Amino acid sequence: MDLTVVVASLEARHTITACLDRLATACAGLEHEILVCDASSDRTIDLVRARAGTEQVFSYPVGTLAPALGSAGIARERGRGVALTTGHCLVSPICAS
Predict the structure, then answer these.
(1) pTM value?
(2) Residue-wise DSSP of 78-90
């Protein structure tokens, strides 16, 4: 596995779908996994679980802070490299010129 992306998700209902779509596009061509560690009260996790994507989803108690979610994801990772982000981050595609 080339890359593990850990998404610390806190109250990201309005951005999580776009976040995951963009991550999938950015990781195209890499053997990767996306781990979503969620501690939201706004049912973000339901949106992630309803996706047809291949993300692995882990639920944590509301109030768990992003650094703890990132650490939890790192403990589960299998990639040679690890990237950390949040459910509010919308990555841009890399442009080659």
Answers:
(1) 0.92
(2) -SSEEEEEETT--
